[in-house]
Amino acid sequence: MVPGGAFSSDDHSRHPCRKAFYLPVRVAAKLVKHRMYTALKRNGLLSSVDAAAWSQDWNVNAQPAGSGERSIRYLASYVFRTAISDSRIVAIEDNHILFCYTDSATGAEKLLRLQAFEFIRRFLQHVLPSGFMKIRYYGFLHPSSSIPVALAILLLEARAGIPSRRRTKRLSPVSNQNRRCCICDGAISYLFISPPGHAGIPPSGFT
């Protein structure tokens, strides 16, 4: 996961990437080519590839994914779930597994019966080999980023004008009972959250 932008180390302002640029495709293509060559050579498989392939320029498929929502939904099913949930397994009998699945063409739910070893074989295709990671994080998503993820979320929410649920909870009337102003010692009352760009304008329905 590579964010489409970065935060300034000076004032934490966000600098998004250009719409026509996300990753240096030519540099990425050279890295993919080099790593493929190195891996094949290390495992004694270099001779199985036509030598002409290494004299040509390679390309990688890097393209915009819209808002990224569909990509996130697709990745989430692999990162946070197993290949198949227990609820989809209907029956296990006579050395066979009966389970339900959704037909990608029609969207209809169907049943499939597989021999146990075939079911296990298909399941293991979704298990990564030792040493592999399901997903890697870069930029402010990386654990060693100088800007904590919690702060990045608050900055992004502020930029988009989205009231933070954390701030909403912290500024609720319950959490502000018996709070006093440090200047006039007057009582502090929670009214509403005004996101950036809407200062002083109460939300609809507020009286």
Give a written overview of the molecule.
It is a single chain. By secondary structure, the chain is α+β, with helices and mostly antiparallel strands. The protein has helices at about 25-40, 70-80, 115-125, 150-160, 165-170, and strands at about 5, 15, 90-95, 95-100, 110-115. A hairpin with a 2-residue loop joins β3 (about 90-95) and β4 (about 95-100). The longest helix is centred in the first third of the chain and has 18 residues, at about 25-40. The two termini are about 45 Å apart.
Structural class: alpha+beta
C-alpha termini separation: 43 Å
Roughly how many Å is the radius of gyration? Answer: 26 Å
In helices, the fraction of residues equals 25-40%
The total count of strands amounts to 5
Write down the overall mean pLDDT. 79
Strand order across the biggest sheet?
3-4-5
Q: What is the N-to-C order of secondary-structure elements (H for helix, E for strand)?
A: EEHHEEEHHH
- Tell me what portion of residues adopts beta-strand conformation: 5-15%
Largest sheet entry: 3 strands, antiparallel
SS summary, helix count: 5
Show unreliable segments.
167-174
Shape category: flat
How would you concisely characterize the structure shown here?
This protein is α+β, with helices and mostly antiparallel strands and 207 residues long. The protein has helices at residues 25-42, 69-79, 116-124, 149-160, 165-170; strands at residues 5-7, 14-16, 89-93, 96-102, 109-115.
